[in-house]
Design a protein that fits this description.
Transcriptional Co-activator pc4, Chain A, single chain, alpha+beta, globular, 2 helices, four-stranded antiparallel sheet
Amino acid sequence: MSIQIYKPNKNNTGFAFSFYIGQNNKTKNPVLFINAIAQHSWDSSKRLGSFSGNKENSEKNISIKFNEFECGAIISAINNRFEWNTYHAYEENKTQIRLTPWDKEITSTKINQKTKEAYESKSKVPAFGITITRNGNQTFKIPLEPGEAECIKILCETVLRKICENTFYSSNKSNNNSNSTNSSEEYDF
């Protein structure tokens, strides 16, 4: 399962983000990966942005892996509308990740039932933004519509569910393979 969100713009400052479930090489547990890439160009005649030109430019793209606790924090932040941030250090890269709630004003066209006239109504919807800053000078950011935030939340929930299923099934498998008649599992802390 993966989610791709493309938000190019005519100023050539847009980004594309990809969210997908992968596997931790050490634990074999599912993890959430986020890839982000900066917009490379804008075709004004087609009103179309392109990202592929930055694919090989390491300063214009980034990949981040989130574990189950970070997925849980993302779920909580979306459910409770608070800012969540974390910090990753890998090799010489220092990366700050922020998920920030904001209220997006939208305009809806409605019909007055008595007069049958159309009118516009403004309201606010709960939106989020993701900002990733590597080494203090490489920033990747994208606004998330309410539906996009909800899909990312469900992707994080899927990671957690898969980890629980893997843990349960591997625990049952090892219990079934042992000759022990004791059904309770012991944990060392």
